[in-house]
Amino acid sequence: MLLFPLAVLTVVLRALFGSILGISIATLFCTAGLVVFGGVPTDLAITVVALGMNAMLLSLLFLGSVASGAQS
Q: Whole-prediction pTM value?
């Protein structure tokens, strides 16, 4: 009886940490790529990647709200 909620919690935590790890690795590679291959200063590369990720998340949030508004 207790095994099902524990299994659900395990899956949710794995997905959460996997997502956070994936975003962190993507950020690291994007920043390193800009610095190494683009010759961009490190502080500017971090700022550009942060702005890009914020824009991506904002667009996903906007598309989600538009899609949920279209269904109702």
A: 0.66
